[in-house]
Design goal:
Blueprint (H helix, E strand, L loop, with lengths): L6 H25 L4 H26 L1
Length: 62
């Protein structure tokens, strides 16, 4: 049995996905600067965004 996400769930998922996309873009930009501390911070931000998105997707799937 499949269920579809409610509009509020879909909006939350879109927000999570957008945050991941933004973090990927930020990391890409940071990589061009060759600043190790900034790269580490951007990498951590991407990791956090991905973890939050995965949590959000798992909650909606329940």
């Amino acid at each position: 049995m499949t269920t579809s996400a409610s509009p509020s769930d879909a909006s939350a998922l879109e927000g999570s996905l957008s945050a991941v996309e933004h973090a990927i873009a930020a990391l890409g930009q940071t990589l061009t600067q060759r600043d190790i501390a900034a790269i580490e911070a951007a990498s951590t931000a991407l990791h956090d965004a991905m973890r939050a998105a995965m949590t959000q997707f798992a909650q909606v799937a329940r």
